[in-house]
Fold this protein.
Amino acid sequence: MAEQKKKSVYFPGLNGLRFFAAFAVVITHIELMKKYMRNLHPFDHGWLDIWGKWVSGPKEGEPVVTSIPLEAVINDPVVEWYHPIIPELGPLGVVFFFVLSGFLITYLLFAERDATGTVAIKDFYMRRIFRIWPLYYLIFILGFLVLPQSGPNDHFFVPYQSPAFDGGTSYWASLIFYGLFFPNIAYSIFGAFPNIGQSWSIGVEEQFYLIWPWLMRKTKKPLRVIITFFMMYLMIKVMVIVIGSVTDINGWQYVRKFFAMSKLECMAFGGVGAWYLYNEKDRLLNFIFSKPVQILSFLGIPFLMYFTPAAVQNVVHLAYSVLFLIIIMNVSSNPNSILRLERKWLSTLGKISYGIYMFHMLIIVGVLHLFMMFLPPGEAPSFLINVAIYVVSIGLTLLVSYLSYHYFENRFIRMKRKFTKVVSGDEAKKA
């Protein structure tokens, strides 16, 4: 069980899980950016679009990949889901972060309420501000004011995302939405903003934090509140999808995309696990901590990736949330967990995972432009060159994230201590 002292909570192994989730996102984006850059240089890439139709191409049965809405996927029998691992790694990493955030925040709110008799809303927001905002707005400034220049000669130019660099409507609207911490709205309308598009998920988490401490503050039946929130949010999503399928409301596709991205239900589900763990519901915990359930949770991830029907791809994240929560609870709280991640090097990498997530896109784009400067035009990079791209991209991401954590983020992390009611994370480990 997680070590808990008065006003102190520490979960071992979670830093390692954070790193692996962030690393999955990095792998996906390296291949995606290599695909985008093929307009400028013939990079080999491992990206395969997830939807397509089997038609007669140059080779019989060759898939021609197109962008197809969900309705066509459901209604057209020749549409296929390709189950490619590369495009799925990143979204799975993000879903994992959502579940983990809901689990940790909810558990710490329970601990604070027990220790102090309430949840200090102002202090909660100050802690989030000092941890999230400094790096977020640093990336915001880099993405909107420093990196964009004019034309494809810019070292951070991204094909297919170039309209965001033109200084037009999409640029200024995106700047406003990102600046107000609604990057997911900008993403829903204009697509990913070059080099910093991944920050949409940070906006989703911050929007969740606007709601959650208020719900957990005084309720005497938190599990009921969590489940009610979970079900109501799912009902709203279903309504959005149904309305979009039976009407032709102008702009509804943006509303639909916004709700598809805002997976607050994943964070709420993490809160369910926090409640059961915090209240030590032994019957359920003994089941979750059993070796068969642990093994099934790990095997279930590749199974879902390769065997989930196309028609339910938009809801499969709920199943992943169950598996991720089982893994989180075992790694953090089960002394007999089959996966043990409490290692110094993993803890170090996990501590800088926020930086990894925020910096990796602009580093990948910069590295690809750097390689293009030295690769012969028209010549596809060799296997060794692709390995070098990975080594340089990941190495620079780790280095920049390490420096950011110790010389930038840590200054603000120290400032949030006076607003802390329950010591957690590495500080709790030292206590």
Observations:
- Residues 3-48+84-430 form one domain.
- The chain has a mean pLDDT of 85.
- The first strand starts at residue 3 and ends at 5.
